[in-house]
Design brief:
The protein is mostly beta strands. The protein has no helices and ten strands. The chain has a six-stranded mixed sheet, with no helix packed on it. It has a four-stranded antiparallel sheet with strand order 1-3-8-7, with no helix packed on it. It is globular, with a radius of gyration of 13 Å. It starts with a strand and ends with a strand.
């Protein structure tokens, strides 16, 4: 199982941008699907975006499509989430996770990084 560490969160005004990073510790994520999720206060954790280890087939939640972009680095050790045109409702703790090719569930959850968007 991958060990993942998120970074890049912070406080930003509505309409601004942030770039989150998720680093795999000690190995690459070759063969995994990588995903970003978020959890706002009082709400359940929700899917944001996912991408295959090769960088192909990005997929987004309707709420972020066209504003967020998920990508990977060439070394296959870091996944990024570029967030543009941020809205107040994007405020949440953002987590990354991995899913092995043979698995049906996500695992390797990081500790999360807080994103706060001020209106």
């Amino acid at each position: 199982q991958l060990q993942l560490v998120e970074s890049g969160g912070g406080l930003v005004q509505a309409g601004g941008s942030l770039r989150l990073s998720c680093a795999a510790s000690g190995r690459t994520f070759t063969g995994y699907t990588m995903g970003w999720f978020r959890q706002a206060p009082g709400k359940e954790r929700e899917f944001v975006a996912r991408i295959s280890w090769s960088g192909a087939n990005p997929n987004y939640a309707d709420s972020v499509r066209g504003r967020f972009t998920i990508s990977t680095d060439n070394a296959k050790t870091t996944v990024f989430l570029q967030m543009n045109s941020l809205k107040f409702e994007d405020t949440a703790v953002y987590y990354c996770a991995s899913r092995a090719a043979y698995a049906s569930t996500w695992s390797g959850w990081g500790q999360g990084t807080q994103v706060t968007v001020s209106s």
